[in-house]
Amino acid sequence: MDETQLIKDIHDRIIHYLENQNKNIGLTKPEVSKEYLEKEFDFNLDTSTNFDGIKEIIEKYLTLSVKTGSTNFYNQLFSGFSVTGYLGEILTAVTNSSMYTFEMSPVATLMEKELIKRMCSLIGYHNGFGTFVTGGSNGNLLGMLAAIYQFDPTLKENGVFGSKVLTGFISEESHYSFLKAAHQLGIGTKQIIKVPCDNNGRMEPSALENSIQKSINNGNQPFFVGGTAGTTVQGSFDPFSTLADICEKYNLWFHVDASWGGSAIISSKHNHLMKGIERSNSLTWCAHKMMGMPLMCTTTLFKDSSILKKINTVEGTDYLFHDDTNDNINLGEHSLQCGRRTDALKLWLSWKYLGDKGFEKNIDHIFDMALYAKEKIESSTLLKLINTVESLNVCFQIQPNSLESSDWNQFNIFVREKLLSEGKLMVNYANINSTTCIRLVTSNFKLKQKDLDYFFFELEKTANDLLTN
Fold first, then answer.
1. How far is CA 260 from CA 235, 237, 286, 290, 378, in A?
2. CB neighbour list of residue 273: distance below 8 Å, 6 or more residues apart
3. Which of 351, 373, 393 finishes a domain?
4. 163 lies in the same domain as 29
5. pTM of the model
6. Coil, helix or strand at residue 171
7. Beta-carbon-side half-sphere exposure of residue 365 (alpha carbons within 13 Å)
8. Which of 21, 134, 367, 436 is such that its CA lies 20 to 30 A from the CA of 39?
9. Where in the sequence is the domain holding 174, given as residue range(s)?
């Protein structure tokens, strides 16, 4: 068998996999163990195989992988399958280029620049710029790095050690990547202050200002505020306009982690959730979440179009960046890393196909699905809604009257694990204050009411079965 035939055979198998996924044939997550997988696969790299062996491995891999494109998958902040996104991934792998210079990726460079321009315009950064990064965590790190530079450009060469203690502020509901960024940048995790939230998971502006004042009184130097557009658990949006007022008052960099909720800006029906976002200094936006792109597809956008080059330019790059006389055409000079995949290609193809209106229709649909799920919960005598459904996160608890309320938390975990072990549905659980709840995420564009009807039927049936056994 030659390479071309192997590719043809595998592509046929992929088509079969996608057809079954669309029909929800097969398990969402097969019940497998580490021991089972070690019997099925020869993970030892000391032994090699031929193309037939590779075909067998790929077959098993597809069979045993979580079917994230299934409408029975509600576990993460991403789901579904994009045809144009998939084609973009194929082209990216086949051409195997890198985004550091125009001469290496001429078409992809212009695609990325157009995407950055469009996304900046939607956010309200009319003279902004940005770059693709390897995920929301790196996007938040890049925003914090820009904040350090804005506070004191000399720290780029001198380092933060020995300087005044810098403090940043995030909400209690913020993503953990802010803490990792503080560690990676030498700020220290203890210097990131978690600000209390209201009952809906939004940062309290008064608590933020109190925290800033306390930090100043302690002799420290506030430099950064990290807001959130779509928190991980509840899907909440911080009050950006009020936070921006505070940041301007204290001259602080205002970054927004919009990894999850940034795509709401495309919808005229839901972009009110992003009110005031144009007053931020930087923003992280993951198109592999609410826009349905394959992982990874993330941008970090900046109001100041010059700061990316300032924080990323160093000596010793003349072997690669020979010249850039044409409007920042060598994107590697603005990038956190050197080699970088052409992640823009899949998003550009999808945007070209769907357009603003197509994406808006899809986003409105999954918001409607979240509201339908909310209505199903409110009509149930077994389920109790836990959060205010602001976007696509629907958090609820199973509350059987036959159990003591003190047992409800553990019972919800039991139900979730039972569903997972049967392979029918995959949904996650989370904690809101002291309540353990099921976190349902409606991010799949193909999701329909009948899919949610099936989800709640199986969930309640499983709960009742566990109660009677």
1. 8, 10, 6, 7, 25
2. 229, 237, 261, 264, 390, 391
3. 351
4. no
5. 0.95
6. strand
7. 15
8. 21
9. 89-351
